[in-house]
C-alpha cells in the first residue's frame, strides 16, 4: 500500500492541511479492499493427517493431536455491532454455538470410548490427549473433520539482553520519543485513556511501580481483584513456587513488553507508549509454548473469565492484544482462525516478526499470517536490527513485516521490580500495541475498525527504501510500510468522520 501525500522532515511524515483529507480518502478506499475473514476449506472424503502425526502413530505409536473441524461461525452480527461489548458478546455467542454444533457428535463418540479430550471454540478444534492410529483414522473419516494436526510445543524466540543496567535520566525513553508518543500526549491530548490492552506472554509482575497503576484489576483503595484481569490456565505460577492465582511472571518477558505498551511509574520512568491505558494479562508459558495454552489464552482474550476459567465475560474483552511470541522454522496457519475471530469482534492483534534475521523469508508464525499485524525491529539510528526477521511470508508470499518499531536497547520493567534493557522484535511489538491504544482513545470512531486502523498505521509510517528482500521502496520485506509514527497515526485517526 503506497502512502498518501506528505513530505519527509527529520525522519517523520508531516501531513499538511491540504493533504490530510486526501490521505483519509485513500485509506478509506484501501480499507474497503481488505478482508478479515478466512474462507472455509474445500471438502475432502477423508481428512488429512499431517506427516508428523503420521510418523508418531506409525508402528503402534500413540499420540495427542488436534482435530480441526470444517465448520466456521457466522460472525457478521459481531462485525457490524457498534459497541465493543456488543461485538465481543455477539462473537462469543456465535463461536461457542458453532463449536457446540460442529463438535457435538465427535464429543459423544470420544466420551463413549473413554477418550480424554479438550474442546475449544476460538479455533473450531478438539485436542485428543491420547490415541492410536485406528482411532485417528476413524476420526479422520468423519465428514465434519477437516484435518488432524500433531500436538506441538515450541521454544519462544529468545530476547537479547544488552548488558545495560537500566539507569536513565527522568523522562520518556528514547524509543517512546522516537515514535512521537510524547507529542501525542502533549499536542493531541490523549495517553490511551479508556482503552484496555491484553498481553499473552510469560505473565506479569502486577505490582511493579510502573505497571500497578495501569492494572485493570487494581481497585481505587489499592487492593486487587484478579478475576477477569489475570489468567493462569495451567497454574504455572503455583507450579513454580509462587502464590496460586496471583499474577506472576515466569521469566520477566511479559512484564517488559507490557511496560513498553503502557508503563509509567509517575516518578520519571516514562517507559510506555500509552500510559493512560489499562492492561490485563495471561500467562501462556515460559520459554516453551504449548498450542493448547495459546488457545486457552486466545479464548480468554475474547471472553475473560474468573481465575478458574469459569463464568466468561466477553463484555470485558480488551481492545488490543500484544503477542510478543511465535516460533521459528514452523510455518503453519494453525492460529489463523483465532486471529480472524479476534479481528471480527474488533480486537486488534499485534505480533512480532521474529528474531531470525538477517536472511529473507524468516518471518515466523503466527506473525507471518495475513491477519496478524507483524512488527520488525530497528535501532536508535533508525537502522533495521540485524536479527529482525524478514519477509516475504511463506504463507502466500505476503510482504512482512507490516511495519517496524524500536526494538534495540529498549528499557522497560523486569520481574525483580527494577528495569532492564532488551533487544528483540518482542520489544518492538508493544510500541504498535500502545500506538493503537492512543489512536482508539483519541478517535473512538476508529476503535474496533481493524482495516482502517491498519491503513492509518501504514499510511503514516515513514518509508525506508530497503528492497534487499523484495517489495517496493514504500512497502518491503525489511521495514514493511516503514517506521512507526505514532504522532501522525493518531492525528490522522482523529480526522476520520464519526460513524
TrEMBL record:
Keywords: Hydrolase, Protease, Serine protease, Signal. Residues 192-472 form the Peptidase S8/S53 domain. GO terms for biological process: proteolysis. Residues 159-172 have a biased composition (Low complexity). The keyword Nuclease does not apply. PANTHER family: EGF-LIKE DOMAIN-CONTAINING PROTEIN, PEPTIDASE S8. Belongs to the peptidase S8 family. This is Subtilase family protein. It comes from Thermomonospora umbrina.
